[in-house]
Amino acid sequence: MEDIAAKPLAEVMSGNLVSFTADLREGAPRPDFGSFITSVLDEEGETPLSILAVVLDVVTCPPDSIHKPSALGLSRRELKKEQPHIFALLKTEIKAAILGYIENGRVYNHLPPRSPLVHDFVYKAGKRAVIALTDDFEYLRLLFNFSGDLPKDEILAATVRQAALNRPQTEREAYLVEAGQALCQLLRSDYERMVSVVRKIKPNPIYMSLEA
Prior knowledge:
Helices cover 31% and strands 24% of the residues. It contains six helices and seven strands, in the order E-E-E-E-H-E-E-E-H-H-H-H-H. It has a six-stranded antiparallel barrel. Helix 4 runs antiparallel to helix 5 (169-186), helix 4 runs parallel beside helix 6 (191-201) and helix 5 (169-186) packs antiparallel against helix 6. The model has no long low-confidence stretch (mean pLDDT 86).
């Protein structure tokens, strides 16, 4: 299985067998909605695991209830130049749903036997791991059954788009078609919702005239 990136993206702050929250490390790029990340579990005396998860949300907020941001009327560029300390008072959290794991070089598309631990590092998932995880559309069922107050239809569509982007360009179109068929089966009891999600997989751009 392909090596993970050299630099960690984030660090786990809380987690269970179905999801985890991680703090983005300073200077690390924010992951895209629906993109794939991995948390590495390497406790002494246990078989190492790499948890595979999908990004559900990225939230920037103050670290506590005391330090609250307020409008200053400056652009981000101006703030970084004039008051750079402000950004030290903010943190960015990544919320992710677990879809599978890697153990002994094999990818499993079901929940792992162990949960991520606080302070485990989080990395961008490698393309080969993502392809192996998403070859079987069981990951869509896991996401469909995931509880939480989140735009589930948008998550399903974004995850499929990200899974396609991890594939060679010549294979993306066929993958989107297969994923659409899998979603039709998953949502067959709700036709309008099914059509909406399938359209989001490969959305048509909306062109707007900026002329007055």
